[in-house]
Structure prediction request, 618 residues.
Amino acid sequence: MAVNPVALGAPTEARTGRPRPGALTILGRFIRKKPLGAAGGLIILIITLTAVFAELVATYDPIATDASQTLASPSADHWLGSDHLGRDVYSRVVHGARVSLIVGLASTLMGSFFGGIIGLLSGYAGGKTDLITQRVLDIFQGLPLLVLAMVMSAALGPSIQNVVIAISIPIIPRAARVIRSSVLSIREMQYIEAARAVGVRHLRIAFRHILPNTMGPFIVLMTAQLGSAILVEATLSFLGLGVPEPYPSWGRMLSVSAAEYAQKAPHLVIFPGLAISLAVFGSNLLGDALRDTLDPRLRGA
Amino acid sequence: MKSYVAQRLGIAVLTLLGMSVVIFVLLRLAPGDIVDILFSTGGYVNNEERQAIMKELGIDKPLVTQYFEWLRNFMVGDLGKSYRYDQPAWDIIRPLLPVTLELAALSIIVAVCLGVPTGVISAVRQDTGLDYALRVFSLAGLSMPAFWLGMVIILALVTWLQWIPPVTYVGPRENFWLHAVQFGLPALAVGYRSSALIMRITRSALLEVMREDYIRTALAKGQSERVVIWRHALKNAILPVVTVIGIEFAFLIGGLVVTENVFNLPGVARFLVQAILWRDYPIVQNLVMFIAVVVILSNLFVDMLYGFLDPRVRYGS
Prediction:
């Protein structure tokens, strides 16, 4: 325990003797080098702020109906128009951000957390344990993400918690794969050997010495999965298997009224879909840029 | 090669068995049993009737027995009976298959035709404005829900061309052009989305190959850039692309599920959604298992192809 892993080549900035650059410097460098990624980050930031301050940003109550204002076109009163029950589309899109982001974040966190632990232990243990774990993960990964989520969501019944579970389970094998592959290379490093030589216990090595070094791929993974989780939530809600009433959800806004009234009120189709696309686009852009920056194996590719 | 095939086949069979257990258990998680669901709309059912129905459906037996019976039936091609239609499931699914297969094939063609060239151009013009534009274009495809893209396409046709796509299925012999449009539009929506993955893999694989010595040699000898890229480089970059097309298949099925719904195409994927919504669980169980078989077979095919295209794979691990 007395051996300092840093002295044995643990990958940390401290070794170079130069002071770590501050957060602002790193941010500035990221924006200059990856303008697209920064744009993605900005989109996600705006959507997050919208979700957090939905009550302040919205102009109407998202579930209040108004019989005199049904299917109104976008105007000064209703910025993005209103739906077949006279509900304000802008306010519903704003509140929808909350549902989409909560479901997206919660399922991504849950899936990546469990997947990450499985990947860490399976990669560290190696041998038969690893082989069996991989085969079991194959089973879950073999089914299309959406089909698995659809069946799970139908089996569990409609509620926000169940949608989160239904989306996070298919994420687990994908997360496990990513973490495992980076654990496999870290495991062979000298500082791990050194830690083992001085008698550090396995679990401690896995969680204290290996896990922190998988953070790069882990963050990349989560950003990429966030986009796909939002997309799956939207699709489930569109099919009527997602978030139940009365929560306004982007996907369901497209299913209930949009198809029926599309011709009379195209804004019902356009705006919720744009919101979904923008959120997913933002997280994909950010995820790509982070992958280029944080994952050294892909640097320059 | 023989042992390679045997090993792959063995893994595929084991994975499928595992998937069958997962699917079986998953559908048993549903609250209430099938009989409850069947008659929740039908009103009161007395206990005797209930027992009779359970017996007919075979759900009075222990779960393990049920599982093995299902597996045996599935393997001999007996997909059970649809509760809703009171018909053998296979009779319902069979006419739907060609629709889904045609749409899937068209979508893959669109995805490859869109993904490979854009990936090549993007790699060749790395870090130029064109590269950025193509990457944003493909990322946008990945970000838009396929069902929404479909809705927007229909909306655009209706608004600008005053043309409403057919709402019912048109056979290819009935009216070939209408049929082509009816399938082409959803294939475009699904294929655009799937092309993003192909584009990215093509781009990164090509970038890697372009750094190899033999490419520099070919260029140094005075070979034209076009020939080097399309003949020398792409041939070696295409392997990961083939893999991703195989993986794409699973991804594609997800896209078909919603697109068939939006375009009102009577395919298997739309039927699956309906079966889930109606809680016709025996059908869902068999259809999902069916999808699992298709996905595993396509993965197996890609593995074989890989071993065939690249001899190194056969002798490797």
User: Anything to note?
Assistant: The radius of gyration of chain B is 24 Å. The first helix of chain B runs from residue 2 to 28.
